[in-house]
Design a protein that fits this description.
Elements (H helix, E strand, L loop, with lengths): L20 H4 L16 E2 L3 E2 L7 H4 L4 H4 L9 H4 L1 E8 L3 E8 L12 H15 L7 E7 L2 E5 L4 E6 L6 E8 L2 E8 L5
Parallel strand pairs: 4-5
Antiparallel strand pairs: 1-2, 3-4, 5-6, 6-7, 8-9
This protein binds iron/sulfur cluster (2 copies).
The site of one iron/sulfur cluster (SF4) has 11 residues, from α3.
Length: 186
């Protein structure tokens, strides 16, 4: 059965030999750690347990597959970057850029950095004093950076169970967005 996201794949786009999402994400269901290729992944071919892969794998489609305006330079295998739209509690909407740990500075190289900064500027414009906060995060292994138009904020390392919260402060007509680890209740 095709999922609703699968139906949105840009015609002609397919994973092909790319397996980057099987490396950058942790997949506990198959004991695959973050930043290491899953033991079920065959380089250049894909998942060796394709029909039995966990739901989290089955339901993941990166933004390059889904967004036509991301050109060939954003093909994850070529870019070393996996783009993912994310949502946080409160309706906040983000773009997460998961970086291949073998090329940790790739997101700061062109043409990627310029486009990432343009997305950060657009997120800033879209964020109003009320309603959803829009944001851009770059993730290199466990380290997360909040990307703002004029700078990046190093949020430090996140364990797999740690979550992020995003907030805004409005002062003198300016909206400042910041992010931090969500502290456990109690
Ligand atoms: S990163 Fe995207 S293109 Fe590459 S294998 Fe994953 S879903 Fe497919
Ligand atoms: S189970 Fe298959 S699809 Fe999921 S991470 Fe491993 S190789 Fe990739």
């Amino acid at each position: 059965m095709r999922t609703s996201l699968e139906a949105k794949i840009v015609p002609g786009r397919r994973c092909g030999s790319c397996t980057l999402c099987c490396k950058v994400f942790a997949v506990p269901d198959v004991e695959s750690p973050r930043s290491a290729l899953c033991g079920h992944c065959v380089v250049g071919e894909g998942c060796s347990i394709h029909h039995a892969r966990p739901a989290i794998c089955r339901e993941f489609f990166c933004n390059w597959l889904l967004i036509e305006t991301l050109g060939p330079e954003w093909q994850p295998e070529r870019a070393g970057l996996v783009l993912q739209s994310v949502a946080l509690p409160g309706g906040h909407q983000g773009l997460a850029i998961h970086v291949d740990p073998d090329v940790p500075d790739r997101w700061r190289a062109q043409p990627y950095y310029g486009r990432i900064k343009a997305w950060a500027a657009k997120a800033q414009q879209q964020t109003k004093p009320d309603g959803p906060i829009y944001f851009v995060i770059a993730e290199v292994h466990r380290r997360n950076f909040l990307v703002l138009p004029e700078r990046e904020v190093d949020l430090g390392d996140f364990d797999d169970h740690e979550q992020m919260t995003i907030e805004r402060r409005v002062a003198n007509g300016r909206i400042e967005v910041f992010a931090r680890k969500l502290q456990p209740a109690g």
